[in-house]
Design a protein that fits this description.
globular, four-stranded antiparallel β-sheet, six-stranded mixed β-sheet, about 5% helix
Length: about 120
């Protein structure tokens, strides 16, 4: 069964850092680009960053220069390193395929940026 499991969220002060991890089943990870999405309070889910099977990343403008997406093919895992976090980054973060989320959504991991 195809699965996604996110981890690494938490409470951090503005300017802090977190590293998110997403373990994906091989059936998902090897066939598609992977991405991180987020859904903040009262907002729709949005694409944050994506990475192709060849490791080429793309980012939404608001996180460029602060977030870095990467993938480890040996572990079927995708990461999101988040630096210089801002209160507006507060959201539940999810991983899935891109473009278009074709796998069942995991539970996500909560990121809260607050002093």
């Amino acid at each position: 069964q195809e699965q996604l499991m996110e981890s690494g969220g938490g409470l951090v002060q503005p300017g802090g850092s977190l590293r998110l991890s997403c373990a994906a089943s091989e059936g998902i990870f090897t066939k598609a680009s992977m991405a991180w999405y987020r859904q903040g309070p009262g907002n729709e889910r949005e694409l944050v960053a994506s990475i192709t099977r060849n490791g080429i990343p793309t980012y939404r403008d608001s996180v460029k220069g602060r977030f870095t997406i990467s993938r480890d093919s040996a572990k079927n895992t995708v990461y999101l390193q988040m630096n210089s976090l801002k209160p507006e980054d507060t959201a539940v973060y999810y991983c899935n395929t891109a473009p278009g989320a074709i796998a069942a959504w995991g539970q996500g991991t909560q990121v809260t940026v607050s002093s």
